[in-house]
Amino acid sequence: MNIKINLLPVIKKKRKAEDTNIIIISIFFIIVLALVYFFYTTRVNSLNRNLATIQANINKLMYMEELKNEKIKSDGLISYYINTISKLTKNQFKFSDFFNTLSSEFPKYAYITSLDVDLDTKVVRITGETSNFYNLGRLIDYLKNSKAISNVYLSNFSRQETTQTGESKVTFTLIGIIQTGGTK
Description:
Layout: H1 17-90, H2 95-105, E1 110-118, E2 123-130, H3 133-144, E3 149-161, E4 168-178
Antiparallel strand pairs: 1-2, 2-4, 3-4
C-alpha cells in the first residue's frame, strides 16, 4: 500500500468571483428576509396591541351604552310618573277649598242639614232649612251668583210647621255643580 504524503505547503486556491457573489447575494437575501420578518412581526405586534386596546374600548363603550339605555328607560319611567302625578294633582278635588268658599258665602238666614258630593260628576246636593219661601228664593239667587257652585236649581222643597213654637220652616234640596277646589 502506498500512501502519498505531500510535505509541500498547500497553496490555497483562490475562490472564484462567482462563489463570492453567490455568498454575498445569499447574505444580502438573508439580511433582507430578517428585516422583513422583523418589520412584519413588529407590525403584527403593534396591530395586536391596537386591537386589544380597541376591544377594551368597545367593552367600555358597550357598558356605557347599557348605562345610557338604562338611564333613558328610567328617565322615561320618571317622566311618566311625573306626568301622572301632574294630571292627578290637576284633577285633585280639595274639599277644604270648597267648604271654605261655601261657608264664607252661605247666608245666615239658611242652614245646611246635609251635603252630598259626587266627585266624578262634581255634582253637589245641599239639603237644608230656611224660615220662609222668600229666604229660599234669596238663597237660590245668591248661590246662582256664587263662585263655589254653578247651575244651581231647586230639586225639592216643603213647608213644615213646628207645633212647639208655632213657627214654620221650609226644607229644601238644591243641586248644583262645584266650581272651586278642583285644581292646585
